[in-house]
Amino acid sequence: MITRYALGALLIMIMLLCGATLLLRAQETYILCVNSGDSAIDCGIFSIKNNKPQLLFVLQTKNEDISNFTDAVCDIITRVKNYHAITIQHACFSAPGVPSANQDYLTHWRLPYAIDAKEIIKKSGLKTAIIINNFLALSYGVDAIDEKDITPLHDVPAELHGQRAIIGAGDGLGSVVMVWNEEKNSYMSLPAEAGTGNFPAFTQFEFDLAERMKQERGFDTVHWAFFVAVPGIEYTYKILKNMNRYEDSLHMVNPDGLAILAHAHDDELCKETANLFFKIYARFAYNFVWTTLPFGGLYLVGSTATDYPELLSEIFLPEFFNCVPSKQELVKRVPVFVIHAEDNVKLYGAAHYLLLEKNIA
Predict the structure, then answer these.
(1) CATH classification of 146-340 is 3.30.300.20, yes or no?
(2) What is the reported pLDDT for 38?
(3) At 56, which helix (H) or strand (E)?
(4) Closest C-alpha among 164, 70, 163, 78 to residue 118
(5) Distance CA 260, CA 132 (A)
(6) CATH classification of 24-139+344-358 is 3.10.129.10, yes or no?
C-alpha cells in the first residue's frame, strides 16, 4: 500500500522528470519543414542532434482548409508548442516554382496561396524562414532514401562523386542538378526549370501536334512540360482523339493521365498517347544529360516512372539511347535510377538544406 509520503515523493520525481524534459527540449534546436503539394501541405517537425535532422512527427493540412498560408503556419507552430512543448526556431518551405532572389517569397499557379517568409517570421517569431524549390528539397533528401526504394533502369556503376540529376514528370516537369562539394563533403544542388524550355518538334506530325497544343492551352509557345507531365498526357490524349487517327475502344471521357498510361496495352489511342509521352520524356532526359553530364546518376521520380516500369523499358530507354553512334558511349555511362519513395524525402531534404546551406545548428 502506497503511503502519503511515498505518493508525495513519486509526484515530486514526476515533476522533476517533466521539468528536466522541458529544460532539455528548451536547449535543443527544432525546425519546421513544409512541403507544399497540389492538394495539401506536409509539415515535418525535426530535432537537430549531432548536426543531423531527426524527424519527430508529420502533420498535414489540406489546401482547401488554408485561407492564408502564414496563418496556417503560425497555427502549426503554436499547436506544436502547446501540445508538445517544442519551440520551433527555424523553418524551410519547399514548393513548385522559383522563389524570390532572397528566398522569402513565392507564388505558383498550382498553389492557391502565396508563401511569404518575411511575414511568417514577423508573425511567428522564427529566427529563420526560407523558401526553396521542391525538387531542390528532394535532391538534398536523396541520400536519406533506403536503397531498396531506388531501382536501376540502366544499371552501370555510378562514378564516385559524379554529378547527379533528378527529373520528374508529375503535375509539372521538375529538374535539379547535384554537384559534389569537397569542402562540405556533400552534394550541393542547383535548381533548374528545364521543363519550361521550348519543345522542339522532330517531324511534321509533332509540329502539328505542338500547334494544336498551343491552341488547347492558349499559349504562343510549347514547353517540354506541355507534353512531359500528367496534364500533358491528358491534353495529348484529347488532341489525338480529335484527330481521329487512332481507334478509341474504351471511350473514356476526360480520363486522368495515369489512367491513360494504365491502358497503354489494351487501347490504341492510349497506346499512342503513352508512346508519345515516354518518347518525348526520353528526349527531354537526353537533352538534360548533355547539359549536366550526370555520371553519378540520373534519377527519375514520380508515378509516371514508378508505376509503369514496362513502358520505361519498352519506350523510354530505347529512345533515350537513340542518338548518333559517336555519342552512345558517353550516354551509356550514365546510370539511370527510379526513386520509388518520395514520402518525407522532401521534408528531410529541406532539413538538410537548412543545416548545410544556412548553418542553423
Answers:
(1) no
(2) 84
(3) strand 52-62
(4) 70
(5) 32
(6) no
Q: Is the four-CA dihedral 276, 281, 284, 286 of positive or negative sign?
A: negative
Decide: helix, strand or coil at residue 100.
coil
C-alpha–C-alpha distance, residues 43 and 290, integer Å: 36
Antiparallel, parallel or unpaired: β 164-169 and 128-133: unpaired
- Nearest residue to 74 (alpha-carbon basis) of 23, 119, 41: 119
**List of the chain residues with pLDDT < 70:** 1-27, 361
C-alpha cell at 84: 508538445
Q: Is 53 left (phi over 0), alpha (psi -120 to 50) or beta?
A: beta
> Given the C-alpha cell 505542338, which residue does it identify?
210
Which residues, other chains included, contact 330 with Cβ-Cβ below 8 Å and sequence gap of 6+? none
Residue 281's alpha-carbon distances to 261, 305, 317, in angstroms, are: 14, 10, 10
The domain segmentation of the chain, as residue ranges, is: 24-139+344-358, 146-340
Q: Can you give the pLDDT at residue 24? A: 43
- Length of the chain (residues): 361
pLDDT single digits (tens) 196-220: 999 999 999 999 999 999 999 999 9
Q: Can you tell me which residue has the cell 534546436? A: 29
By the 10 Å C-beta count (0-12 exposed, 13-18 middle, 19+ buried), 134 is classed as buried
pLDDT, position 105: 97
Q: Tell me if 36 sits within 8 A of 115, measured CB to CB.
A: yes
Distance CA 63, CA 61 (A): 6
